[in-house]
Amino acid sequence: MKKIAVVILNYNGVEHLKKHLNNVLRHSAPYDVIVADNCSTDQSVEYINSVDGVKIIQNYENIGFAGGYNEALKQIEGQYEFYFLLNSDVEVSPNFLIPLVKTMEDRKIGACQPKVNALLKPNFFEHAGASGGFIDRNYYPFCRGRIFDHVEEDKGQYESESYVTWTSGAAMLIRSEAFHSVGGFDRSFFAHMEEIDLCIRLGHKGFKFKVVPTSKVFHLGGGTLPYLSAQKVYLNFRNNLFLITKNHKGWLFPMLFKRMTLDGIAAYKFLFEGKVSFFWKVFLAHMALYQNFGSLYKKRKAQLKNSDTILRYEGNILINYYLEKRKTFSVLDKRKLNQ
Length: 339
Known about the structure:
The protein has ten helices and 13 strands.
């Protein structure tokens, strides 16, 4: 079995590949680099085939981040000890894999991530992962270096390794055996928060997760779907409800009622700001929960049987951020991390 496959999922991202693929090849040696193409309609396949040293897996259609990785990794299952999942719009640093591989010597660690900074503003963290991800008691995700839309300047404040709740799908080293043991990503998510769901499911099985800031990458972000996209709003609201339904260990319906009420407040905030399409997308996200509740509940019953407790921030990040004006991870009460 080989040690690592660096696997880049691509959909119509030929320009990103032209900018970053050779950088990944240079700094990933001696490990294999594989591009999983999600049935691109641009010149991606032609370009990938023109680059020496890159393997290609072609999916039969665009089945999203979750489905695309699942189908591609099925084809190399059993061949590698680890997968390094990497977005096509990421620039890696020299020797970025070395500290990550060292961390994975601890068999309790299911996955780890590098520190993720912004490609266009390298002195700032990037929204998708920053220096490690958490969820609060209401399942709102946030990071060391990013809470909601507030992204911090990287001044070295999060250089220590830390256990986290989830690792970023933009750049994640994960045990292949662990990935396949839970069926990989949940395809019903399509894109967004599927890595949080995956980490929580593995956390229920006793795995832990770490951020390793001595490894560093730079992420463009929004390369496939812009951050201010109405479709991204839909996926984030919908998938957060999917996440809760599948993974909340306490009383489910009170938790869903609370979250959907908070979603409603957010929707009317969008409406008052003139973002009518965002308001509508929140409504559609709730409709999607009703439509998929049966299948999600079946997954819940299977996943929560004999499950371990996951790392979670037991505070309320909404109150911390909006009422107490605590907009950085460094000023949160760390005693509320249930580790």
